[in-house]
Amino acid sequence: MSDPAILAALTSVATFIVAAGSPGPATLAVAATSMARGRAGGIALGLGLAFGLAVWGLVAALGFATLVARNVQALTVLKLLGAAYLFYLAWKSGQSALRRETGDAVRVATDLSRGQLFRRGLTLNLANPKAVLAWVAALALGGGGEQAVSSLVVGFCAALGFALYLGYATIFSVAPVMAAYARLRRGFEAAFAAFFAAAGLRLLFWRAAE
C-alpha cells in the first residue's frame, strides 16, 4: 500500500471514529441496555449496531451509498423509518418509566432475548440516513482510494465500531452504575424517553445539507 493510500485510509478511519464515537441514539441505546441488562445485553445490541454500520460501509465502498445520498426519495424514506424507530424506542422507555412495580420493571428489562437486542441495534443503524452520509464522507475525505483499500477500511472501521460499543457496554454495566440504575430506574427511563423522542424529532426535520 502506497503512502498516499495509507494517509487516505487513516483519514477515513479518523473521520469514522468521530462519527461513531460521538454521543447519540446508538451510544445511548448501548448505555441504557447495559445498565438494565448487563454487559451481555449491551454487547448484543452493540454487535447489531456494528453490523448495521458494516452493511452501510460495504454499500459505500461499492459506490452505491453515493447514489443513495443523492436520491432525495431514498433519504426521505430512511429518515422517516429512522425517526419512527426512535419514537418507538422513546415509547418503550416511557412505558418503563411509568411502571412502578419492581417486578414489572425487571420483567420489562429482561423481556428481550440477545437476538432481539441484536436486531434492535441493527435496525437502529440501518434506518439511519446519517450513517449513509457518514460513510460517504469518511471514504470521500480519504480520497476515494482503490476498491481494495476502501474494503479494508470498511472492515477495520466495522471492527472499531464494535470495539467502541463494547467499551460503552463495559463502562455502563459495572456494578455501581447498574445499582444506580436500579435505584433510579424510572428517572433514567424518563430521560431516555425524552432523548429518543428529541432525536426522532431532530431526524424527522433533518436535511441532508446539515
From TrEMBL:
<dbReference type="GO" id="GO:0015171">
    <property type="term" value="F:amino acid transmembrane transporter activity"/>
</dbReference>
<feature type="transmembrane region" description="Helical">
    <location>
        <begin position="6"/>
        <end position="31"/>
    </location>
</feature>
<feature type="transmembrane region" description="Helical">
    <location>
        <begin position="43"/>
        <end position="66"/>
    </location>
</feature>
<protein>
    <submittedName>
        <fullName>LysE family translocator</fullName>
    </submittedName>
</protein>
<dbReference type="Pfam" id="PF01810">
    <property type="entry name" value="LysE"/>
</dbReference>
<keyword id="KW-0472">Membrane</keyword>
<keyword id="KW-1133">Transmembrane helix</keyword>
<feature type="transmembrane region" description="Helical">
    <location>
        <begin position="72"/>
        <end position="91"/>
    </location>
</feature>
<dbReference type="InterPro" id="IPR001123">
    <property type="entry name" value="LeuE-type"/>
</dbReference>
<keyword id="KW-0812">Transmembrane</keyword>
<feature type="transmembrane region" description="Helical">
    <location>
        <begin position="122"/>
        <end position="141"/>
    </location>
</feature>
<keyword id="KW-1003">Cell membrane</keyword>
<feature type="transmembrane region" description="Helical">
    <location>
        <begin position="190"/>
        <end position="209"/>
    </location>
</feature>
<dbReference type="GO" id="GO:0005886">
    <property type="term" value="C:plasma membrane"/>
</dbReference>
<feature type="transmembrane region" description="Helical">
    <location>
        <begin position="153"/>
        <end position="178"/>
    </location>
</feature>
